[in-house]
Write a structure and sequence with these properties.
The chain has 10 helices and 10 strands. By secondary structure, the chain is of the alpha/beta class. The longest helix has 17 residues. The mean pLDDT is 94.
Amino acid sequence: MKYNQYLKDLTLISEIGLGAWQLGNNSGWKSMSEKDAVELVEKSLEYGINFFDTAPIYGHGTGEARLGKALKGVDRSKIVINTKFGRTDSGDTDFSSDYIRISLEGSLKRLQVDYVDSLLIHNPPLEYLDGEKNEHYEILERLIEEGKIKAYGASLDTYEEIKLLINTTGAKVIEVLFNILHQDASRAFAMAIKKELGVIVKIPLDSGWLSGKYNAESTFNDIRSRWSKQNIQTRAHLVNRVKEIINAKDNLAQKAISFCLAYEAVSTVIPGNINIAQLTSNLESINNPVTKELIKNLEEFYLNEVKHLNLPW
């Protein structure tokens, strides 16, 4: 496992982290028992993972609670925990500045820790990202002074969102939607390096499409049911094109994760893992790197064949 800088002068983090969405008891998604969730975290630690990403809304609080239970007794100085606020443990949204402290205190209690390394605004409307028009960032700075967080930032999807946040706040962390089919965030990578930001890559497998297990006839009855039949057919075509560009003998998921890892700005990538076998396979991405030529080909594919489609997440 390679370890990268996340926050300046603090603990380095594993280049592949564990996203805790799957740990929670999620309605409308594949749920995991508490026993399996704890075992998945314990196996992650054995593999050298020390970065854990969670949020109150994951499993309506159960994601954080199970993560906290699994990490109990682990040397706190050697692990890095990122959580969020704005999407609540009750399933509602509350991005108001008054709710920041309430949300954080709930997260700390569920996680059984005194502080989190980073706290992110969880995919808020654009207007909340402007530090010159919101008092959120003054509150976040005070939380740093109090020792309850070490840094703050936001979970974002587009370059314009990232640019607004970076240019108007003291954010030191961004969590970005970035994968072979969604490369807009990479336009901010040079800026992130210059400002020494920690960069978390979310959804590296495009909600499972870049695992290669779905096709034009696939149907979904969970959160992904938001996709129309046309959306599904379009994605299926694009995945087939990716398979043509990537050697068909290679593991598509591992190459997709390795593509994200290839960018200097990226601190960690958090693929979803629903069991230990999937975790183990995803970690093999470290031993299955992409070449500079393949990166160039995938970037050109995005610019020429994908970008204009404005694929819905």
